[in-house]
Design brief:
Structural class: alpha+beta
Distance between the termini: 164 Å
Radius of gyration: 53 Å
Strand content: 15-25%
CATH architecture of the largest domain: 2-Layer Sandwich
Largest sheet: 6 strands, antiparallel
Shape: elongated
CATH class of the largest domain: Alpha Beta
Amino acid sequence: MADSDEPRGEEQDNQAKIERLSEEVDRLWSRDMAQQLKLSEAKYRALVEGSNDFIYVLDKDGYFTFANTEVEHLLGYQPEEIIGRHFSEILHPEDFQTLGRSFHERRTGERATRRLELRLQSQTGDTRDVEIDIRHFSVSASGIYRDQTYIGTHGVARDITERKYQETKRLALQGIKEVVWSMVRGDDIQLVLNSIRASLETMGIPFSEFGAFVLDMDEPPVLTLYSSRGAKEISKRGEWMVTDTERFANAVVAAWKRGKLSYCRDLDGETTYHERERLSEFFGEVRTIVDAPFSHGVFTVTSSGPAVFTTRDLTFVSELAEVLSEGFHRMEDLREVTLSEKRYRTLVETPNLVVMLLDSRGEFLYVSPQIEQWLGYLPREFYGDRSTVDRIAHPDDLDAIRTFLDSGEAPVLRDLEFRWRAGDGTYHWASGSLFPIFESPEDEQINRVSMTQVVIQDITERKMVEGLIKESLEEKEVLLKEIHHRVKNNLQIISSLLHLQTNDLEDAQVRRIFEDSQHRINSMALIHEELYNSGDLARIDFGDYSRILIENLFDSYGISTSHIALDIQVDAQPLSLDQAIPLGLVINELVSNALKYAFPGGREGHVSIFLQAGPGNQFALTVSDDGIGLPTDIDFQHPNSLGLRLVETLAHQLKANVELDRSTGTTFTIARESS
């Protein structure tokens, strides 16, 4: 028994040790688990509190039991402020039914909610200048169960406000663009405004009215307001319609010229902005106004309340203005394309005009059908066969035509008049213009032509008229030459009669008067003789004329140029008949006086004539001699002699001034400074 008792005691000791060991293991395990749980909780809390999402827990009745600190940033609540509140207090009323149904599904144990989009109201209320009061969230939530009994909900709400805003804005702008890009005329903007109104409402912008002031910068400029109330012309015929509108319109134009968005938060007390009474006429009650210039005017948004627009609102208004600019630019482009198309169609379809297109090798790609009506050839006769041009071209013009058609390497317009033979054998005059066509700017820079457009116009009738005019002018020229010739002959007859009469006169003074008259007549006859011999019947080479005139005077007075030296310097510019005759008479009188009186007793001397002509009938004539000079008792402005009176009269006829210099001999200057 003793042996048997001893093992039993040892077994009991071992069992006790095992129990003690088990207790120790349990104690150590419990302590470790507690530490791990504590650590896990800390990590979880850090994760939850550091999240950018709103993490929450609701009890089974929908009241908040937990909210992380991010709720303050997203909704303006402290976590302790929201705990104990029902979720419906922060839910947008329109979304309550949706969330309530999802909440009920979780209560009955059905599937969890994933990415449910809803709106939550922030604590900022209606203070839109500070924060956005309605935020969009994507919510994922699951039910909390204990022993298969629903006890609450935990979930994560991610702020998607910015994404939703950008999405909404993109769709709004896209819708407006589609309408704007359909504009083909200015009145279509009324449809655009309807689309803009819908977009402003969609974006939640608190506007009262809006409109587009469109500037038409044609002459005269016109300012038109397009709004929900319809179109109204603010100005017309280059003037503002009413006096008190002028300042208003000028303010709109000034806003357009600034080219930057302007925002007036409160018009009360405003003196530098639009006239308040004028704004109310167009927009009703106005306290806040935004002007966003676009390419063709100013887009304006107003509100009856002060300072209602946020930075986001202003950005959206600017983007609307940009869309309007795109639309108006496109409308102008379409208009220009339409006009170009009409012009080109008119060009191609003009009966007396033929349009051709040649490739880079000079082969015909297109010939307009008018060629058949004009010359009787079918367009296909030109395709692939340049010899057609050789066959129908006038032999004298063939080389010029070939050079013309091959000259499309340079980006220049070239013109050529030539003759083409029609199908009936008659020749028609044509005028050709060549336009090189380049595929790209790079081709233009290196003068590489892809095609050449040739425009050929029938000018047969014009050439016939020109021929008739030329014949008529030639006939008139012959007639004028004949007139000048007869006038010259008649004047010479008169001069001869005076000469014959002079031979019978014994009184030296009377003889001198007759001789002076003869010289004057000869000077005029010489003008008509020069015109008769000239190729230009309207103008005369005054240099040749003046030399002949003065040499005749020297011969008439029997004076040699070796005794009295002669210096003639006359501008080569031709003079009209109205200038030449008076100037010729002036030279005749002044040179005659010099030859008769300046060199008494066989005194030697020098006579100079200088004439310089300028534009606009300007001229300066100087006749001088180094003789004894004009007597001091002679007043050349009120002379007694016929010759000097004649000089004064002729100068007045030429609208010129006469100056006399007595310092060295006698110098007369007759000058006209302007026309």
